[in-house]
Write a structure and sequence with these properties.
Chains A, B: This is TetR family transcriptional regulator. The structure is a homodimer of 191-residue chains. Chain A is 69% helix and 0% strand. Chain A is built from ten helices and no strands. At the A-B interface, α7, α8, α9 and α10 of A face α7, α8, α9 and α10 of B.
């Protein structure tokens, strides 16, 4: 078909790039594989060749220019009593970056959409990427209760600052915010 | 038309009840005034008679069997050093109640949907109901920074426990959770 190419070494990457943009701007539910294929200029069948359905493509598209898990692991290579501020500082650095923010917002909207897909994605994203880093990389270890509570404050800060837009959280300097919220994370870690 | 009634004293209430159910089960975006009219058994024109569009109907439908603002105000009638636990305890009591939870989840999904309607609703719900209670009812007053930070932990706990379903937060006893998260709220209040 005119304008459609068959598989090349870059096809998979182009599909992922188109998917990332579509998921970010329209959310998971409203994005179709057909529209992604159109944006990528490929035949829809090629998407099925590379990915086992929309969920699998979304998970691949979430593999952002960075790996949240690796970034967190790196940030958590500090003494235990500095872990709280380090977690928030890293989270804000990643989310403040305009290269990542649209994709991350797309993921977040899908996570909170309350659909079955949202449940799948929670497992892939929150439990697959963020929580293991907290569990494994904090010096001395943390309880599951602590992981959940840390997660709740991280999720709330992200929703308030980036999704809903609660002031003065939106305008605050990220380091000031890390110093204010860090002790909350630290207290949960030490529970 | 058969099955459709013209306005009666209860019509407004029946429209609101139908709207509440529709918004809760389908979210704001996917709910149409036409489908609400059908559920309520009234002519769509009657909805426009009582409400100035879908946003206005949603705001009316959010006027839950309880007023979040009044409930919070009541809960905050305690000494300042008990406000943190009181806020979380009240929030969990309301959200754990199966009579309110579906409606509240509908509101939350709409707030996080990232659409223009979400922005409108944020103003109506978060800033119109929850934040003023925090601002006005805490003995001695709080800073705007504190209001935002308290909001972030409340939102995150709600999203984690009720929307995403993060364990062990889902299974935890509400009083235990209030005792664990209360000190976070208290620290923000005292910042």
């Amino acid at each position: 078909m005119a304008g459609r190419r068959s598989g090349t070494p870059d096809t998979r990457g182009e599909i992922i790039a188109a998917a990332r943009e579509a998921f970010a701007s329209q959310g998971f539910d409203r994005t179709s594989l057909r529209s992604i294929a159109r944006s990528a200029g490929v035949d829809p069948a090629l998407i099925h060749h590379y990915f086992d359905g929309k969920d699998a493509l979304f998970v691949a598209a979430m593999d952002l220019p960075l790996s949240p898990r690796e970034r967190l692991a790196e940030a958590l290579d500090v003494p235990r009593d500095q872990a709280g501020v380090a977690v928030i500082r890293t989270m804000l650095t990643v989310w403040d970056d305009e290269a990542y923010q649209p994709s991350l917002l797309g993921v977040l909207r899908s996570l909170t959409s309350g659909t079955a897909a949202g449940t799948e994605l929670r497992t892939a994203f929150v439990e697959g990427m963020i929580f293991p880093a907290l569990r494994q990389e904090i010096e001395g270890g943390v309880s599951e209760r602590a992981v959940g509570l840390v997660g709740s404050q991280i999720i709330g800060l992200i929703v308030a600052r980036y999704l809903i837009g609660v002031e003065p959280l939106v305008s605050m300097d990220s380091e000031e915010l890390a110093q204010l919220v860090g002790p909350t994370i630290q207290r949960y870690i030490d529970l």
